[in-house]
Amino acid sequence: MILPLQARLADAVRAAARSAFGAELGELSFQYPKRLELGDLALTAPFDLARTLRRNPREIAERLAAELARAPGVRRTEVAGGGYVNLFLDRAAFARDMHAALRSPVVPARLPGHVIVEHTSINPNKSAHIGHLRNATLGDTFMRVLRHRGREVGIQNYIDDTGVQVADVVVGFLHMEKKSLAEVERIGGKFDDYCWDLYARVGDFYAQDPARRKLQAETLHAIETGDNETARLAAHVSARIVDCHLATMDRLAIRYDLLARESDILRLHFWERAFELLKQAGALRLETEGKNAGCWVLTMSDDSRSSDEDKIIVRSNGTVTYTGKDIAYQLWKLGKLDRDFRYRRHRIDPDGHVLWTTTSQAGEASAPVFGHATAAYNVIDVGQSYPQRVVKAGVAALAGPDAAAASHHLAYEKVVLSPATARALGYAVGDEASVKVSGRKGLGVKANDLIDALVAKAKTEIDARDPERDAPEKEVAAKAIAVGALRYFLLKFGRTKIITFDMEEALAFTGETGPYIQNSVVRARNIFAKLEAEGHRADALAARGAQLDLGAMLEGAEGDEAWSLLLLMARSDEVAEQAVKAEEASLVAKHAFAVAQAFHGYYQNPRYSVLHAENEDRRAFRALLVDAFLRQMEVLTALLGIPIPDKM
User: Fold this and answer.
1) Which residues contact 142 (CB under 8 A, 6 or more apart)?
2) How far apart, in whole angstroms, are the C-alpha atoms of residue 531 and residue 516?
3) Interval 296-309: pLDDT, tens
4) Can you tell me the mean pLDDT for 325-341?
């Protein structure tokens, strides 16, 4: 709501600057004064013009303020300080327009181009862990925000089904447990948990006899070659665990459009083609001496790390590195590789959404077009920052600087546990401030175990608050609260901040938490439910509120508080756009909490009761605010993937 108004005001400022001073202004920004008495928006353009025109900024501000005072939507203007223009908006018109926009939302115009967000991308060799949940939640939320702001987005999950992690599990089955493919196929229960434990034991198996490491190399070569018993076992392990991962992410309402398999990148010769093009472009050099002798290394302008192994694209034994395969995949994403996958349906969800997977076999003719993106965002942990720079350099070498600029790395930091949470999950804890986890050592926190523990704790809280509630209702509410708690906790921190996850803190109904946000919406719904129970039609009451003299209603102490709430909600799309530009989903999370907090602050005042309003006009006005809040929070919680239970 605020963005269109700012655009109109910016046009008015440019026109005024052109008329009064013959000056052209470029992009304009507005600030938000800290106190309402200082205005609703503040313009700093007079300072920019003063530097260009060599004139007093306050004099410029006075000329611009006079013009802006006549702009539609502006009640009055005033000049402050050395040259600020403070704008006081027409509260009645703004509130009425905002409520109308929330009641009849307009789908934003689609921006040109296609965006790819790759996230989750878990090695398909064991259960997902808490760090994977951060990756998936960040990627899923960023996708939601991009779509909300008019981008066409495809979600891809990269399946490294030919990597060393899968090879290690295959080594475990073949050489430790002496199992055949048929025997592995008969393993029941939680297959991803079974492989979690096996993968940890393989590390010990190698440590006991370093010569066993050659089994890893032999197995990896057999997997990459394909069409043999070892490769078929690896394919079975990978396929089963991918389905386990999909089931885990389903619990957080996270899903994908395409599973891109690394084996298909190899079998469809994506890498060979990219390798050929990189050599033709002179982007690779063959090292002839030193520890990297025999390796093909990417030539980069950053030669301070010329011996860094992250730049090795092809090892001396001829095998391609992860970075090399990532360059080929990134080129394909951006439509810069003259190769394409074939596709088949992996599954169809109950709502009709189709999850596709790549294949090197015969594909389906009806498959949609994937790739050819104008921008590609890769959600990968911060430890992969340099390899991602290498990928970007490889893209630049073949496709130019524009393609490199379209390659974005959404880096994120790890998740550790608070000692209390680690103990609750069954880990022995000393006096450390936080507990680090390691999936390779089997000391990670499995995603499903964490979600189960959160659901159980939420259910305990519901039992204490409402012991008479039906068991099925408790279960549904507990799952919603657990998901809201987990997603918000993983989103509220900046991407590059290490998170210390604490279950008690995440599930708290007070403070900056998902349940606090959920509770604000449930509370607002309860207000309307009570109105309905007393014979009022809440929807009609809110509509009547929009027809009142809102200018009068939005004056005084209550009016100022209500106006602050409306103005904060109106910034939601602006915050979403900032999140896109900054590549930072936490901005939306923080904003949603601020809106919920402002609503709580307003309605905790007994003088502002809807149910016990002093007259019907006040009741209708307050119903208007509740209605606006509910509609705005429906948007914000959907962006964050936070479900709202019927009852907390």
Assistant:
1) 117, 119, 377, 379, 410, 579, 583, 585
2) 23
3) 999 887 555 445 66
4) 95
